[in-house]
């Protein structure tokens, strides 16, 4: 099987079991000094959980590295194609050399090997997975159907994952860090008005909303946008940085639309609510009833 034909059939197919005249037997395992091995600059995974790495490092201290790392030689160094997590744990465990399989890859194969290894891992966070799909599309000029074929996923799975990259960067960071779930993220994407998305995001964080409750509140916010939101009032808000800052703090604290109208000396504050439950929630926050 050619390397080109192997694409899309999993990581194993990118490590042929036949002789390669350029580098010898493809499955020969060689021990290489760890300081000669370098991470893949195009590694899709950006976050490696410290606790999980520590556990793997402890296992490596006891049993060694069971599965060799796949590398490509680049002058006097070796670049990781697949196995960066094992490499990091081995370095943490204090190993001076590690077992590797040396291969030659096209840029296409390097990216796919790294992506397949990572996407098939359960602990890859949702943003890393979406970024991996996007990298495949951009680098290899693929559409969503072709990406889905290569990684063995449904097209809808790839499409829904890629949508997460439409979220603001701080919300993406919250998803990557586990502060919100992918279900919360998809609910936020369903909110029509960007300011309402911010409101719901604050509620999810501050009130620990479930995904189902987030969906209910998203529907309420969207209904307000479509049916009851008053038309904008041009020039009603003074574009003063201090007032804008305080307005955002009100929004974050109350988890709803807040408009500060006026100047530094006088004005008014408008607080919006979208249901009786919403009004009672805001009342409890303002009066401090939710703390008793």
Verbal overview:
It is built from 13 helices and nine strands. The protein is of the alpha/beta class and 292 residues long. It has four domains: 119 residues, Alpha-Beta Complex (Conserved hypothetical protein from pyrococcus furiosus pfu- 392566-001, ParB domain), CATH 3.90.1530; 42 residues; 49 residues, no CATH class; 60 residues, no CATH class. The radius of gyration is 26 Å and the shape is elongated. It starts with a helix and ends in a 5-residue tail after the last helix.
User: What's the helix count?
Assistant: 13
How many structural domains does the protein architecture include? 4
Main structural class: alpha/beta
Quaternary structure state of the chains depicted: single chain
Query: First CA to last CA: what distance?
Result: 69 Å
Give the CATH topology of the largest domain.
Answer: Conserved hypothetical protein from pyrococcus furiosus pfu- 392566-001, ParB domain
- Beta fraction of the residues? 5-15%
The amount of helix comes to: 40-55%
Biggest sheet record: 5 strands, mixed
Order of helices and strands: HEEEEHEEHEHHHHHHHHHEEH
Strand order of the largest sheet: 3-7-5-6-4
Number of E strands: 9
Choose one word for the global shape: elongated
Global Rg: 26 Å
User: Could you list the spans in which at least 5 consecutive residues all have pLDDT below 50?
Assistant: 1-25, 226-238
Provide mean pLDDT, rounded.
76
CATH top level class name of the largest domain: Alpha Beta
CATH architecture label of the largest domain:
Alpha-Beta Complex
């Amino acid at each position: 099987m050619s390397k080109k034909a192997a694409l899309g059939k999993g990581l194993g197919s990118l490590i042929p079991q036949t002789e390669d005249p350029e580098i010898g037997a493809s499955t020969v395992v060689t021990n290489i000094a760890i300081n000669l091995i370098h991470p893949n600059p195009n590694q899709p995974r950006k976050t490696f959980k410290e606790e999980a790495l520590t556990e793997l490092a402890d296992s490596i201290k006891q049993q060694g590295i069971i599965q060799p790392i796949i590398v490509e030689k680049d002058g006097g160094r070796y670049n990781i194609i697949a196995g960066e997590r094992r490499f990091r744990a081995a370095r943490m465990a204090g190993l001076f050399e590690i077992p590797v399989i040396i291969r030659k890859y096209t840029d296409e194969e390097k990216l796919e090997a790294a992506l397949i290894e990572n996407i098939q891992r359960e602990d890859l966070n949702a943003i890393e997975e979406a970024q991996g799909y996007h990298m495949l599309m951009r680098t290899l000029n693929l559409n969503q159907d072709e990406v889905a074929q290569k990684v063995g996923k449904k097209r809808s799975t790839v499409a829904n994952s890629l949508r997460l990259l439409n979220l603001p960067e701080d919300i993406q960071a919250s998803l990557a860090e586990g502060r919100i779930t992918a279900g919360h993220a998809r609910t936020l994407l369903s909110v029509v008005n960007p300011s309402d998305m911010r409101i719901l995001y604050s509620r999810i964080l501050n009130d620990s909303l479930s995904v189902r409750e987030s969906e209910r509140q998203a529907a309420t916010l969207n209904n307000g946008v479509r049916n009851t939101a008053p038309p904008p009032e041009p020039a009603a808000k003074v574009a003063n940085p201090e007032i804008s800052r305080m307005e955002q703090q009100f929004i974050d604290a109350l988890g709803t639309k807040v408009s500060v109208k006026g100047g530094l000396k006088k004005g008014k504050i408008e607080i919006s609510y979208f249901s009786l439950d919403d009004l009672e929630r805001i009342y409890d926050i303002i009066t401090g009833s939710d703390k008793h």
